[in-house]
Design goal:
The structure holds 2 protein chains of 2 kinds. Chain A is an alpha/beta fold. Helix content of chain A is 26%, strand content 22%. In chain A, helix 8 packs across helix 9 (246-256). Chain A: This is L-threonylcarbamoyladenylate synthase.
């Protein structure tokens, strides 16, 4: 068993080499630490099942690089494809009828395959270079809880299991994201087999049961809409009644940008923050402007807010009480990418968050 | 040492000339009357009004300072400015476009008359407001460090350890809404106009500041000195939603209007008082926690919310229990935003040679202590 650091320049090469040799690789992912093996190597897959103490016949999901690789491995209708394009890459495992290009041990008895496009470049790049799916199962033994650090993972692992592992990629502590949400798409009616952090909906509706969850949803949404958005500022118009959690939503976004001192800007209309963390795939490297239009009454106002100067690439503008932004909407639309976030009370604790591009 | 101080962090355009802790002249132009009509700060007015009035306010301040009645802008300025040693200006926290107006003016004057600038944190001003004296040097409060400071205003809620002049340590602060903001928002839900604080105070006193509904006291068991008022706002809003029997998807203002026109005044006073009590009791619990934690029983309180006489009484009772003392802003105008407190804070900065090294500084909207 070799342990290498995630920052190791040759991490990708070393991983691919280990996979090609039929090895088990423990790797960080967008959710928890997982085990990677070559899905076309029967010996490797058997070793994985032995490692996990996985009952035979219980399927194991796979990572793919992109939609092209996804379609090479499972059957899906046009409708389902366009639905998946809305939510992937993301923390979802989708179960679809397999084209049997992977070792049969990975599939369910019904011949379906769980498949993931993770929101994690290391793995998608790896799958691309490797040119076939890689196993996507958490690095805990069956029935045990998942691991967020290599240390805790190795601590719990019996010596005989350690011998089965060839390579460990240590990326330190991972954020405590839940395992993926597993969605069964083999039948016309969509079934949720396991609920992860993000609720899977056909429309872009998210249900939050706590402030923490609202933040996670905000981060998930940011990652999704950031993709391909490098040349324009992002403008989030956040609507919802008093106390529904708009500032919490902005705090979630700020968190992954390294900003941790967000407070309500109501009193001064807006605050400006400098982005200090640069998560992969998120291209906003300059400023976060947190605006609250709660006190705005008159459209004339906007001319004097001086917000135009923030409409530059690399900036995120979050508008609370965004429904009042009517007057400057045309300017915003012409110079930025607008995303509407609507937050509604379901009850005192639960919120429904709808996203519209 | 005479300091010309300028403050434009939110909706007051203010200038003052101070000497040590003494206020020699002080002019505040408040936009609250303008904003009242609109139910909140009105930024276009805020910026434009600052821009339009700043010159006039500074002139008035200087006239009052010299007691000269007729004032010739050019020659007069230069002559009076000979008697000004430094220029102080609020650098933040505050509304960016408003802060810019004061800073631009301060730089212009500094350049023209070759003066050094002292940049002041608005919160430093609030802290020193309890030690500001009138032109005759009253009241004569001595500094007896260390103090615990509670700042409660529309934009801030903080507990600060005031160890010595210009030595601060933030012990706790709001994680979302400020106490004054929460009161304003609750006031708006109740249809009370802006700023809602005074109206809530009046309504609450009609029912002897009693608590009828037991809204939550947020974060009182958090074990730290941070505040959070957004959850309280949520439960207040939700409570009223529930009692108005209207659904969420309707426009909230319409709900409020229908609701309140059909309710009697008793309910209104009870709600106002219960909400105020939830805010104040939270402030009290956290302040007492800070007293116990630090062992400091000398309390300094600043910010607009301390204009509330009932809150003053509660804080007086609290320090009495701990055999301590409490200091409030020495004059009523010092609870709100003003330049006098900025000038006084600047004096203590000047004592420590804390001058702006050059004129290249910028406003810092989220400046902290």
């Amino acid at each position: 068993m070799t342990i290498i650091k995630f920052k190791d320049k040759k991490v990708s090469e070393k991983t691919i080499k280990a996979l090609k040799n039929g090895g088990l690789v423990i790797s960080p992912s967008d959710t928890v630490y997982g085990i990677l093996v070559d899905t076309a190597n029967e010996k490797a897959v058997e070793k994985l099942i032995r490692f996990k103490n996985r009952p035979w016949g219980k399927p194991i999901s796979v990572f793919v690089a992109d939609f092209k690789m996804l379609e090479e491995n499972v059957f899906l209708t046009k409708d389902r494809l366009s639905l998946l394009k809305e939510v992937l890459p993301g923390p979802f495992t989708v179960v679809l009828p397999s084209k049997h290009n992977v070792i049969k041990l990975l599939e369910s008895e019904k011949g379906s395959l769980g498949i993931r496009i993770p929101d994690y470049r290391f793995i998608t790049e790896l799958a691309k270079k490797f040119a076939r799916p890689i196993s996507a199962t958490s690095a805990n033994l069956s029935g045990r809880s998942p691991h967020y650090s290599v240390q805790s993972l190795l601590h719990e692992m019996p010596e005989n299991k350690k011998k089965l592992i060839d390579l460990v990629i240590d990326a330190g502590k991972l954020p405590r994201n839940k395992p993926s949400t597993i969605v069964d798409l083999t039948t016309p009616k969509i079934k949720i087999l396991r609920q992860g952090e993000i609720v899977f909906k056909e429309k872009k509706i998210y249900i939050s049961k706590s402030e923490t969850q609202t933040k996670k949803i905000a981060q998930y949404i940011l990652r999704k809409i950031s993709r391909g958005l490098q040349k324009k500022p992002l403008i989030l118009i956040i609507e919802g009644n008093l106390g529904v959690g708009k500032t919490i939503f902005v705090k979630g976004i700020a968190d992954i940008l390294g900003i941790n001192n967000i407070v309500s800007p109501t009193f001064v209309i807006y605050y400006e923050y400098s982005v200090s963390a640069h998560p992969q795939g998120v291209f906003f490297k300059n400023k976060l402007i947190h605006i609250d239009l709660y006190n705005i009454q008159d459209p004339e106002e906007f001319k004097h807010l001086g917000l135009e100067k923030y409409l530059e690439k690399g900036n995120i503008l979050c508008f609370e009480w965004g429904e009042k932004a009517g007057e400057i909407m045309d300017t915003l639309k012409s110079r930025g990418k607008i995303v509407y976030v609507k937050m509604k009370y379901v009850d005192e604790k639960i919120r429904e968050i709808t996203v519209k591009n | 040492m005479n300091i010309l101080a300028i403050e434009t962090s939110a909706d007051e355009t203010a200038a003052a000339v101070t000497n040590k802790r003494k206020v020699l002249s002080n002019v505040i132009y408040s936009q609250i009357l303008l904003h009242k009509k609109w139910g909140g700060i009105y930024p276009s007015l805020a910026k434009r009004a600052h821009e339009e009035r700043i010159d006039q306010i500074i002139d008035e301040t200087l006239i009052k300072f010299t007691k000269v009645e007729v004032f010739h802008p050019e020659g007069g300025h230069a002559r009076i400015m000979q008697n000004i040693d430094y220029i102080a200006v609020t650098q933040g926290p505050g509304l960016a476009i408003a802060l810019e107006v004061g800073i631009r003016k301060a730089k212009e004057l500094a350049e023209k008359y070759n003066k050094k600038i002292i940049t002041v944190n608005h919160l430093e001003g609030h802290i020193y407001s309890s030690f500001v004296q009138n032109s005759k040097g009253n009241p004569k409060r001595d500094f007896k460090f260390p103090y615990l400071v509670l700042i409660v205003s529309g934009g801030h809620t903080e507990i600060v350890l005031f160890k010595n002049h210009m030595e601060f340590e933030v012990l706790g602060e709001t994680l979302d809404d400020a106490a004054g903001e929460a009161l304003d928002k609750a006031g708006k839900i109740l249809g009370l106009g802006y700023p809602a604080g005074p109206a809530i105070e009046r309504l609450s006193s009609q029912v002897e500041n009693k608590d009828f509904y037991g809204f939550p006291r947020p974060m009182i068991k958090s074990g730290n000195l941070d505040f959070s008022f957004s959850g309280l706002k949520t439960s207040f809003y939700y409570f009223i939603q529930g009692h108005s029997g209207k659904r969420e998807d309707e426009k909230s203002e319409r709900i409020q209007n229908r609701f309140w026109t059909s309710q009697n005044d008793k309910k209104l006073t009870e709600l106002a008082s219960s909400f105020q009590e939830a805010i104040f009791e939270t402030l009290l619990i956290k302040t007492e926690f800070a007293i116990n934690k630090t062992g400091i029983n000398k309390l300094v309180v600043g910010g607009g919310v301390i204009a509330n006489l009932y809150l003053r009484k509660l804080l007086r009772d609290l320090v009495k229990k701990h055999k301590g003392e409490v200091y409030f802003p020495t004059y009523k105008y010092l609870t709100g935003d003003n330049a006098a407190m900025i000038g006084v804070a600047a004096y203590y900065k000047a004592q420590k040679k804390m001058f702006a090294p050059d004129l290249n500084f910028d406003r810092i909207p989220r400046l902290t202590l």
